[in-house]
Amino acid sequence: MIRILSNPVFLISVVLATTNQILEKGFGIFLPVIHSYLDDLLCFPIVLTLGLAMYRYFRPNYRLTVWHIWPTVIIYSMYFEWYLPQTSVVYTADVLDVMMYVLGALIFQRFINRSSTDLSLAGLQNS
User: Fold this and answer.
1) Domain count of the chain?
2) Cα–Cα distance between 26 and 23 in angstroms, integer?
3) Per-residue pLDDT for 92 more than 60?
4) What is the pLDDT of residues 10-27, one digit of tens each?
5) Which residues of 55-73 are buried (b: 16+ CB within 10 A; e: fewer)?
6) Is residue 50 part of a domain?
7) Backbone dihedral angles phi then psi of residue 57, each to the nearest 5 degrees
8) Is residue 123 part of a domain?
């Protein structure tokens, strides 16, 4: 479990998301494109890694399947980009947000959702 939480892509995602929130909420600094899309892009590398870490607590080489990843992306997209904009003026629907969710899920799948067996086969892990 600790190994997955030390994945560089996960750590970079957490640092970027945290920095962005500190800039926005702490200092009132909003960088237009980053403000609009960075959190959406980083959402699934963070959320899915935390979920994967829970699975890996019990099964160290577990990988999330498409049946874990894509329903989660669909539910987030429907909730944040369809439902909330209909119920609150604070939220706006944006198809580019959904594209960022998809890209983030693909980043998770490619760079984080790998077992130690996958890494050793690729020659990426020290013996």
Assistant:
1) 1
2) 6
3) yes
4) 999 999 999 999 999 999
5) bbeeeeebbbeeeebeebb
6) yes
7) -60, -35
8) no
